[in-house]
Design goal:
Radius of gyration of chain A: 17 Å
CATH topology of chain A: Arc Repressor Mutant, subunit A
Number of domains of chain A: 1
Oligomer: homodimer
Strand order of the largest sheet of chain A: 1-3-2
Shape of chain A: globular
Strand content of chain A: 5-15%
Largest sheet of chain A: 3 strands, antiparallel
Largest interface: A-B, 40 and 39 residues
Helix content of chain A: 55-70%
Chain lengths: 113, 113
DNA sequence: CTGGATCCTTTAAGATACTG
DNA sequence: CAGTATCTTAAAGGATCCAG
């Protein structure tokens, strides 16, 4: 059998890891490099510090995001993708591409109908 | 600029379209062809008819899944991926591949530490 | 600046029984 | 068989204030 049914556990795992309202949002924000907490808070429209720290912690626990603190005054913290997190890049791109194309098709279809 | 920041609207759209506990589960079940309501209910472990019909309706509204009824007695209904739905296949595969590899890495890491 | 803690509202989901 | 309806619970998320 060349290709078994897609493993449900993998799907569940992915949903758990990347699910939630803000995780993909955060990841796309870290796509091109590290950001400080406040930068993320500013750039992710509508997120509260509580949700931001919660999602960051989960991503950190999953080994996708790295957290580095600096003993400045006041304290600074930088978040970035880990090696493992970087492997998400092609996936993020494909997700974006699919969504882009799909939305375009919907728009066309509405025009035709 | 070769590549702008990944569009947030696309990400949101994807999460809305594919989010929820069962949608990816359903899609992987329709991956290789059409299925009847009851078949889906049986093969998706733990789903209730309420959730199944709800997710199916949303996928149908999104233009990803096609619903065809047959006037048999009792009535039969077949669900399948639409043309648009089929474009999800490579994405589903890449999601699965990423999850598979990533989980393997985690397992290794735990072994080392 | 980077969070933690608390309270509150909303939404998602589960259980179960029922209908054409 | 293919769904509906209703009720209840669990989880996600938002708002706000506070502390190192």
């Amino acid at each position: 059998m060349e290709k078994c049914l897609i493993n449900i556990e993998d799907i569940q795992f992915l949903l758990q890891t990347l699910g939630g309202k803000w995780k993909l949002h955060i990841l796309t924000n870290l796509y091109f490099g590290k950001k400080r907490f406040k930068e993320l808070e500013r750039e992710i429209d509508g997120i509260s510090p509580k949700m931001l720290i919660k999602e960051l912690k989960e991503l950190e626990a999953a080994g996708i995001v790295h957290r580095q603190t600096f003993n400045t005054v006041p304290i600074t913290v930088e978040y970035s993708l880990t090696e493992n997190g970087l492997t998400l890049k092609p996936l993020l791109e494909q997700m974006k591409n699919w969504a882009e194309i799909f939305r375009k098709k919907i728009a066309e279809h509405k025009g035709n109908s």
